[in-house]
TrEMBL record:
<protein>
    <recommendedName>
        <fullName>SMP-30/Gluconolactonase/LRE-like region domain-containing protein</fullName>
    </recommendedName>
</protein>
<dbReference type="GO" id="GO:0043161">
    <property type="term" value="P:proteasome-mediated ubiquitin-dependent protein catabolic process"/>
</dbReference>
<dbReference type="GO" id="GO:0061630">
    <property type="term" value="F:ubiquitin protein ligase activity"/>
</dbReference>
<dbReference type="InterPro" id="IPR050952">
    <property type="entry name" value="TRIM-NHL_E3_ligases"/>
</dbReference>
<dbReference type="InterPro" id="IPR011042">
    <property type="entry name" value="6-blade_b-propeller_TolB-like"/>
</dbReference>
<dbReference type="GO" id="GO:0000209">
    <property type="term" value="P:protein polyubiquitination"/>
</dbReference>
Amino acid sequence: GGNLQGEIRLDSSPRCITVSKNGKIYIGMKDHVQVYDGNKKRLASWQHLNGDAVLTSIAVFKNDIFVADAGNRIVLRYDTNGKLLNRIGGKNKERNIPGFVIPSPYFDLAIAGDGLLRVVNPGRHRIEAYTFDGDLEFWWGVYSPNIEGFCGCCNPVNFAILEDGSFVTAEKGLVRVKVYDVDGNFAGVVAGPEQLIEPCEAKICQIPANCQSGGFDLAVDNQQRILVLDTIRNVIRIFTKTRQNSG
């Protein structure tokens, strides 16, 4: 097991975290971002958002910091000094952006290898691609209880990106972790409900109140293993790609 190297004490509960390449730690609290250096010293506390804010995901790309606010159904783009540059994904007919539908506080984002921001639109059962200036370029995903699709009120809840550009997705309710290729085509199952939860716990939830658990988080390590944070059992499950024999 690992040894604790140190800890940062916070005055309230953090909700998301990321680390930049230069070692700065960006922590999303409920309604604002705090920045720390590698020595655990607080460098900044950015401006608080309104009372509806619920920050759920944060990502850094060069000098841009992107924050998902599930409460206000918007993505915020900041510079490294905490200046708000623009908002992304708000409903806008002129720009053909339908807006985010977020029935429960699961709202994930990441920067893909093509330089576009990927954001889950869980109520529309898809992952959307935006430019940093907020243009919606394309999306993929379909509502379906079949293995290729996303079902329930609001899925996927979280995702991560593999080195080859593939996407790993996690769903709640009918809990399953799957892989889609760089274009969003279904590529395979990492784990299904039978591996992740008790059989009686698997269900398709049409309203968020029926699915308060099973919002598993995902990460990919430098060995391209898939790490699944099991929020029901409070464990991390590690999956590796199985080798397929040729011939």
